[in-house]
Give the backbone structure.
Amino acid sequence: MAGGKIDPGETPEAALHREIREELGVGVTAVNELGVFRAEAYGHTPGTRLHMTCFTAELTDDPRPSSEIAEIRYFTVAEYAAMPHVAPGSLMVFHHLRDLDLID
């Protein structure tokens, strides 16, 4: 799941376009807000809260990993949940997407 921080003065949707372009080298169309999710920030000091505005969108091309991305990989929610390092916020979003029948 691509992600990043919103720059000062930037809207969440503008940040989505910028982050996808920077991390995957493609654009997005058909953007729809999925929701706002809050969770404990993985890999940060305990008690640090994460606030994520998430979207669904169509990619304009096949994604290409940038220097920020080690690999692009597809997995089910169950496969992600079984990984040794699981971000609670990401898992929350993946469960929501599965509940909407958008992913497996």
In short: The radius of gyration is 14 Å. The first helix runs from residue 12 to 24.
